[in-house]
Every structure is written in structure tokens, then in C-alpha cells.
Amino acid sequence: MSATTKTEVCALFGNPVGQSLSPAMHNAAFRDKGLDLEYLAFKVERKNLENAVSGARALGFRGINITIPHKVRVIPLLDHLDPVSKKIGAVNTVVAEGGVLTGYNTDAGGFIRVLSLNSFDPDGKNAVVLGSGGAAMAVCYALVESGCHVTILNRARGLSHATDLAARLNSPSKNAARALPLDGDNIKAALQAADILVNATSVGMHPYEGQSIVPVEFIKPPMVVFDLVYNPVETELMKTAAQAGAHVIGGLEMLVWQGALAFELWTGLSAPLRVMRQAALARLETGPGSSQQGLPAGRQNIALVGFMGSGKSTVARIISRKTGRRLVELDRMIETDAGLTIPQIFARKGQTGFREMEIEAVKTVSAQPNQVISCGGGVVLNTINIDRLRASSIIVYLEVSQDQILARLARQKVEKPVLTDPADPEEISKLLVFREPFYRAAADITIDSSRLSAEETAGRIIAEVRKYERSSK
Ligand code: NAP
Predict the structure, then answer these.
(1) 179-204: per-residue pLDDT in tens?
(2) Counting atoms of ligand 1 from 1, which one is nearest the CA of 205?
(3) What is the reported pTM?
(4) Residue 220 appears among annotated catalytic residues
(5) What stretches of 221-326 show up as alpha helix (H) in DSSP?
(6) If you write DSSP's letter for every residue of 303-350 in order, what string do you get?
(7) Helix (H, G, I), strand (E, B) or coil at 138
(8) 3-state secondary structure of 219
């Protein structure tokens, strides 16, 4: 759809904005929903913010995203604030209706949505948040509101800001936040009691890529490590946290969710999450102005298939670390898109609804290069999935003996909605016997990992994939 005299505008005001993923993400969403809206990014210097906001008001913009360095100073220029952005003291989304501008903060909502999709409930837990800038303000608010105790660690230059933030989050009846200097002793002490670590500093992104504030020895499973940095998709902190066995969450999911919540505020429609994620990823992979967006990648991916309990996620994480390929957990992606856990999807939409979402997810990942994809156990049941995966990936079947699968599933507490009784070995064995030929038929490479550690399995797969690539040249 090309712009006409009726086209409405949403905008990003910030400085810099050149690397922003928001224009790609929102324009893809507007096209997907057939909306006559255009999203444009404007570099707005501090001295020009007031004029820019007046201009948006005068020109009847539908909405504005606000980013660094204007999230706080935009507040006096608006007519209203919703209660959340008022409490946080920072706005990242503005809705304009009839010339009246209302500020919102979707960073907080996006952060909490991602935590809940990762089955992390902050209530009664201990969090360590690194940094006290605009993103940390939203994250700390969201955590404290959810019943979490928060330790904010900030380097000396911004410590007074961190102290102010903690004071604003506390109340006479609730002492939920404290601020301390960011140094080795405080990191070590705070992490000893932490359930979740959030990096809300710029460390990990340019010009700090390859750097992490937290030494690997301070990260202990089952800690959740959430890095808000989304470029690169996998940061040094995420790599080391994965090595340490933590549950790792990247900033891209929060970026997509805060964008989705802004989209919903501007349009009143539910956001096309998959389209937004794909557009953001394509922009990240290919950079600005590239013509590569959305093209299939050739067979640059590794897709792991196999029965539940065969260790696909762990092995995929190790392969990702060893080869630099981006880790994609297909089931997690489906949960994020749906805003529901897999058992909830099964309960509400049935297995058929879930399989339809799985097909869409496979389609999306198959359009992206340089990934290691951990597939759900039933992905092989639909040949469309296999055809699509095969176009972009070398498919590896992780074979594990039936006894081991039974032993592992007996130890796992997670729900398995494809099974009526996850504790019944007979039901598991039947499903395994039924699916085994599908795994075998789909695979380019089969690895029997029954006697191998996860590390050894990953090493074997990498070697076999290299051999396979050489032989098929
Ligand atoms: P900001 O307001 O500029 O705050 C940056 C914070 O990082 C400050 O606390 C700053 O400390 C700290 N910092 C910067 N360099 C540091 C260093 N070398 N060592 C230690 N601390 C350092 O930025 P922001 O908006 O909060 O964004 C922070 C990060 O979150 C960025 O990477 C951004 O891309 C990411 N983010 C992600 C999402 C998402 O949706 N995933 C949303 C918002 C932001 P001082 O106070 O001492 O300067």
C-alpha cells in the first residue's frame, strides 16, 4: 500500500534512531493488518523535542514511540499519563486522539509478558537489575509491582539516579528496592540470593559487544538471566549464562512485546506478533536497506528433531554456543506468539490449533539463516514442516534409547499435553514407536546419543554436519 493523502503516521522520536528495528516491525504489522498507517523514525535532538511533539500534535500523528534520550523529558509535553508510566516516570509510547496526547510505558508490560511466557513468577523472588536508565526504571517497577525484591546495581556516575529510583519504588509499608554501587563484591553478594538477573545496561551492545559485567562463576542454575540488549541477538552475558546452566532470555522478545502493546494501543487490534518478530529479525540479520529481507537462507540452519526428553534444547544451546548460530526454541516461540503456554494452547485450541501454530512457526524460522532450531517432538508429523525445514536446514535426529527417555520423563515435572498420563510408560512407549519412523525419515543425519553427554552429542553433530556439507557440495 503506498502512502496517500489519507495515510496516518506513527513516529519514533529519539537520538540516535538509525539502527532502530521499530520501523521495520511496525510497518510489517500495519501491512499485515491492511492498515493505512506509516511508521517513520525521526532523529530528534534534545533542544528540538518540544517542537517535534507540537509538530506531531499539529499534523495529527496517530502515535509516537519515544526512545533514548527523551523517555523522561517528554512527560511535561503530554496532556495525560496512564498510571503505569506516571509511577515509572518514563514514557515510551504516546497515543494521540483528537490532538490530545497520552503517555504510556509498554516496556514494563512487555517485560512481564515475556517473564510469564517463561514461567517465571516474580512474586516473593529476589532480582538483581544492572543499570538504572529508562529500561531499568520500567523493569524495576514491573518487578516490584509483581511482589519481587529488587537490588539495583549501578556504576558510580549514575548511582544517585539508582538511589532515587529505589526510593520511588519503596513505600512506608513496603521496602522492596535498594540501590548499591556496581562493583565485584556487590555483584557477588547480590547474586548469591538472586532468582533473576536483568541486564538493563548498554553493556553487550555496540560499542560494548563481547563484554559482560557479570563473571560466569556468579551465575548458578536455576537462575533466570534476562538481557534486555537485543542487538546482537545473543550477547556475551547470554552465552556465559547458558554455559552456566541458567535459563536465558534475550531482549528481542521484550522488544517485540513492547512493540506489540504499542501497536494495540494505537490501533485497538491484536498485534501480529509473528510478523513483527520476523521483520525485526530480518532487519537485524540483514541491516538497513538490504534487499535480502525474508529470503530463504539455503541450508545454513541445523534443526534438531526427536522425542520429548531426548535433550534437544540442551544440545541446541551448546551447538549455538560453539558455532555462533542463533538458538531458536520452536515451542517457546509458539508460546510467545500465542501469549499462552503450550498446555494452555492445548486446553484452549486443542492439538489441531497447536499444530497450525507450529506450521506458522516453522515457516517463519525457515526464512532465517544461521540458526540452531530445537523442534518440538511432533513437528515431524506434518510433511509441510519437514519440507520447509529441509529447504533451510540440515535435519538431525537425536536418537535416545526408550529406557532413557522413560527415565528422563519420569524425572521431569513439566506438563506434556500430548500425553493423557505423562507417568504411564506404556503410553509413552506407544507414542515413541509411532513417531520413530517419522524422525528417521525426516533426518539427514541420525545421532545415537544414548551413551553420550550433551557436550559430546553437540560435538558429534557439529562434526557430522560439516561432513554432510562437504559431501553435498
Ligand atoms: P539508558 O537510559 O541510556 O541507560 C543506560 C544504563 O546503562 C545506565 O544505567 C548506565 O549507567 C548503564 N551503562 C552504560 N554503559 C555502562 C557501562 N559501560 N558499565 C556499566 N553500566 C553502564 O538506556 P536504556 O534505555 O535504559 O537502555 C539500556 C539497554 O536496554 C540498552 O541496551 C537498550 O537497547 C536495552 N533496551 C531494550 C529494550 C527491549 O525491548 N529489549 C527496551 C529498552 C531498552 P550510568 O547511569 O552510570 O550512565
Answers:
(1) 999 999 999 999 999 999 999 999 99
(2) 32
(3) 0.71
(4) no
(5) 236-243, 251-267, 273-286, 312-323
(6) EEE--TTS-HHHHHHHHHHHH-PEEEEHHHHHHHHHTS-HHHHHHHHH
(7) helix
(8) coil
